[in-house]
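Q: Got a minute? One more chain.
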Amino acid sequence: MPKFYRNQNTQLDGYNEVHIDDDSCPTPPLVKNRQPLGWHANCKDAVGHANRSFTGKSDGCKNCIPTCHTR
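A: Always. Here it is, folded:
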């Protein structure tokens, strides 16, 4: 089960990106800007958790979890 985190910096379109925490992302946020989401069965569960746990909208990173990138 992979571990995920959310970038606390909101993108210009109003979304916060969720990333997989396995060092595979070519565009990760700085460590100080990562909000841990814990382990999830898949990226859909991680994005759902982020949307329930934080204010604002979250979406998957287009580079490391493109199947959960919807915008």
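A: The longest helix spans residues 43-53.
Q: Perfect, thanks.
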